Amino acid sequence: MSSLPVYLYDTKQIAGHCNKIASIPYPQKSIHFASMANSNPEFLHFVKNQGLHIFVNSLKHLQLAEEVGFAPDQIVFTASSVDYSTLDLLYGKGIRVNLDSINQLNYWLGNYPDSLPGIRCNFDSEAIQNGRAGYFIGDKSRLGIDLSDLIDLDAKDKIGGLHLYVGTDITDIEYLMKFYTTLTKWAVHFPNIQYLDLGGGFGVDSLHPFDFERFGANVSDLMHSFSAIMNREIELILEPGRIVGAEAACFLAQVVDVKERAGRQIVVLNASLSQFPRPLFYPDEAHHPVQIFSPDGNPKPVLVQRKVGIVGCSTYSRDVFAETVLAADVQPGDVVSFGNAGSYCASMFTEFLGFEKPKELFL
Ligand SMILES: Cc1ncc(COP(=O)(O)O)c(C=O)c1O
Q1: pLDDT digits over 142-194, tens only?
Q2: What tens digit of pLDDT does each residue of 196-212 get?
Q3: Is residue 165 in contact with ligand 1, taking CB distance under 6 Å?
Q4: In this structure, are 208 and 303 located in the same domain?
Q5: CATH number, position 283
Q6: Which of 204, 212, 239 to mutate to test the pocket of ligand 1 (most atoms within 8 A of CB)?
Q7: Pick from 196, 229, 245: which residue ends a domain?
Q8: pTM for this model (two decimals)
Q9: How far is the CA of 196 from the centre of ligand 1 (A)?
């Protein structure tokens, strides 16, 4: 039986990304890896050893974080509608929590007046130009507490932190800074604030890699200015997910069959999209560079380009990994590699269709 499909991680690359994020010059900072991007315990152990903390959005991932050994003060919990029993549990464990509604806030303040919660913030902004940003922030988003509602509350001095998540896969640093700057303008109204959590969203683009040096300089300047206004050092929290591991892994599967149809080659893998579900969840945004190798591991010789559909071996009609153009003569036994497979890939595995969860190997 083939040892494929498998996810293969290059830990040096993961370490490189952790170092880049950690090099943000602002001293009072805490970097929390977003566990939804990759919840493999080995991955979490690795980033923990690199000095990262963790951000979770569910009880299951909280439990995982604890099993991996993250201490309560290394965990941030931000979700949307957190039920009261979960809030009780988080308070009991002393875990930093960002609340997402006025109901949750009232419950927290009524029951735990000794502990200052954080708030997941929302506000509308002219900077929200494209449709995708609206899922995360602004009037069309379902998330967060509208800061204009919060500003009218008496409880402003009971808020310990403000959290913002602008969106995902963003490489435009000015775009991010516009939101962060707006947040600091609101934040001055909260006298006991201890931290600003600016979320994640740092984009993966091999042609224009995220410029952490520029980002770090801009964010540090902003945090220093904000701290000066508040007369104390405010902690910076970040929650990077995708960027930490995305480019550090590939998903490998073996070709089991090849068919010809209407001038197109159909390459069938010994795998299913349920094992690599990002193209299913995000059909327009999942870009995973394809490479073909012979069974001996060598790249296939370059030939004339042709249209190819790379598909799974289930009967699900949408089990299509990629519709692409390849310059290789693909044969059964060859190996297909999909790049950018280290984030939001293995963690999206679904039992739909009955395929095994692929192994994940860390080199
Ligand atoms: C609140 C929050 N923080 C951080 C992240 C990680 O985002 P990214 O992987 O884009 O860095 C997410 C992802 O959904 C999120 O919802």
Answers
A1: 888 888 888 888 889 999 999 999 988 999 999 999 999 999 999 999 999 99
A2: 999 999 999 988 899 99
A3: yes
A4: no
A5: 2.40.37.10
A6: 239
A7: 245
A8: 0.95
A9: 15
User: What is residue 2's three-state secondary structure?
Assistant: coil
- Residue 128 alpha carbon to ligand 1 centre in Å: 17
Query: Are 78 and 197 part of one and the same domain?
Result: yes
CA dihedral for 133, 139, 145, 150, sign (positive or negative): positive
Ligand 1 in contact with 30 (CB < 6 A)?
no
3-class DSSP state for residue 27?
coil
Q: Residue 5: inside a domain, yes or no?
A: no
Instruction: Among 220, 245, 270, identify where a domain stops.
Output: 245
Give yes or no for residue 251 CB within 6 A of ligand 1.
no
Instruction: Quote the pLDDT of residue 286.
Output: 86
Check pocket membership of 344 for ligand 1, CB cut-off 6 A.
no
Contact 270, 355 (CB under 8 A): no
Q: C-alpha angle 248/164/64, rounded to 5°?
A: 50
Using the atom order of ligand 1, give the atom closest to the CA of residue 200: 11
Report how far ligand 1's centroid is from the alpha carbon of 11 (Å): 21
Please tell me the predicted confidence (pLDDT) of residue 141.
83
Question: Would you say residue 2 lies in a domain?
Answer: no
- Is the Cβ atom of 239 under 6 angstroms away from ligand 1? yes
CA angle 161/166/127 to nearest 5° reads: 115
Query: Which pLDDT value is given to residue 284?
Result: 83
Tokens of residue 245, six digits: 């591991």
202 and 261 part of one domain = no
Number of folded domains that form the chain: 2
pLDDT tier for residue 129 given thresholds of 50, 70 and 90: low
Cβ of 167 closer than 6 Å to ligand 1, yes or no, is no
pLDDT of 1 above 80: no
Residue 105 lies in domain: 11-245
Among residues 53, 216, 199, which one has the least CA distance to residue 122?
Answer: 199
Interval between CA 332 and ligand 1 midpoint (Å) = 38
pLDDT digits over 77-110, tens only? 999 989 999 999 999 999 999 999 999 999 999 9
Kind plus residue range of the DSSP H or E element containing 12: helix 11-22
Is the CB–ligand 1 distance for residue 203 below 6 Å? no
Residue 109: give its domain's CATH number: 3.20.20.10
